[in-house]
Specification:
Order of helices and strands: EHEHEHEHEHHEHHEHEHEHEE
Number of helices: 11
Number of strands: 11
Oligomer: single chain
Strand content: 15-25%
Radius of gyration: 18 Å
Helix content: 40-55%
């Protein structure tokens, strides 16, 4: 089960499918609390273990993948403590970016929450201490990625404006590698490349997450044939998000289900299904 607040984790779904095409990958989006990037640490720490536990109870996956930098950098230990199955988190690709840089200066695009996290600062200290790192948090890029996933074509000027604050901090024009530290952002990699002021190498952690997931599943994972088609599940009513349901269809999820959390005990009360052909 791949989990995110919105559609960003679909980039991780694609990465897993690319190396283990026969593995069933279900997807869950916490649309009832989207976006995570503007929520407080206390709100997310309280919510994430609960939602993860409820989703695992319904879907019964072998591995739970948090395909969200904001959630992973804040509440990965709490989710692992709550669940009885392996949990794979998302770590910003700071180490590979530092190794790839030829100029010794890299950028990091993330949500404001990931930018301010001590976890991110620790990664920079541990793996990028010998390079200069420039950070920028943007919720606008998350919104643009969601629009692209829905099949829209935002103006390229919007992408240029959203990443411009990062380059504004690069007065000596040395940034040559940028970490996409939000799983939404690989969805708009090409738009970011087109609107960057020069050639930039944009890197993300999708491949590393997929490899770790398949290592946990074991050597037999590629030979496993699912009995049921993959499904998407969200924490708000699918009828309110027809464009989101259609997005899931484009990513291979023919049905979108609703995790209804409105119960006294905070447990699952029902899962309703919305089908698309």
């Amino acid at each position: 089960l791949v989990f995110d607040s919105g559609v960003g984790g679909l980039t991780v779904v694609d990465a897993i499918r690319s190396i283990a095409p026969n593995v069933r990958v279900d997807y869950a989006a916490d649309t009832g609390f989207f976006p995570y990037g503007d929520k407080t640490d206390a709100e997310l720490r309280a919510r994430l273990p609960e939602v993860a536990d409820e989703l695992v109870e319904v879907i019964r996956p072998d591995v739970f993948v948090i395909a969200c930098n904001t959630a992973s950098t804040l509440a990965l230990p709490e989710v692992r403590e709550r669940l009885s199955i392996p949990v794979v988190g998302t770590v910003p690709a700071i180490k590979p970016a530092a190794l790839l840089s030829k100029t010794g200066k890299i950028g990091l695009l993330a949500t404001p929450g990931t930018v301010r996290r001590d976890y991110t600062a620790a990664l920079i200290s541990d793996f990028a201490h010998d390079v200069e790192v420039v950070l920028h948090g943007s919720l606008e890029l998350v919104s643009l990625a969601e629009r692209v996933a829905r099949g829209e074509t935002p103006d390229l000027a919007d992408f240029a404006a959203a990443q411009a604050p990062l380059f504004a901090q690069d007065e000596d024009h040395r940034i040559d590698t940028i970490v996409l530290a939000c799983t939404h952002f690989p969805l708009i990699r090409e738009q970011l490349k087109q609107t960057a002021p020069r050639a930039i190498n944009y890197v993300d952690s999708g491949g590393a997450i997929a490899r770790q997931t398949c290592r946990i599943l074991g050597a037999q994972a590629p030979d496993f044939v699912p009995e049921q088609p993959p499904r998407a599940i969200i924490t708000s009513d699918p009828s309110r998000h027809p464009e989101l349901v259609d997005t899931f269809v484009r990513f291979g999820f023919s049905r979108t289900e609703h995790l209804d959390r409105q119960t006294d005990m905070g447990r699952v009360s029902q899962v309703s299904s919305t089908m698309r052909k």
